[in-house]
Design goal:
The protein is mainly alpha-helical. The chain is built from 6 helices and 2 strands, in the order βαααααβα. A two-stranded antiparallel ribbon has the order 1-2. Helix 2 packs across helix 3.
Length: 73
């Protein structure tokens, strides 16, 4: 799943480590989300969006998930 985490973080001059500490995850988790290797859980997506003052939909791109059928879940 694509996200705007990297762009938002760079706009605000925040390191991966600083963001990770703020939302109580590891730097590796932030790296994995930025590189589309990990899909954030709903609670983490909420924390990240709240941290940036945006909605979850403004931070994460769900268009890939819209193509999935219900049987995939």
């Amino acid at each position: 799943m694509k996200s705007k985490i990297r762009e938002l973080r760079k706009q605000r001059r925040i390191s991966q480590e600083e963001l990770a500490r703020a939302v109580h995850v590891t730097r590796h988790t932030i790296t994995s989300i930025e590189n589309e290797k990990y899909i954030a859980s709903l609670p983490l997506a909420y924390k990240l969006s709240k941290y940036f003052g945006l909605t979850i939909e403004e931070v994460f791109d769900f268009s890939d998930m819209e193509d999935m059928d219900d049987e995939s879940f």
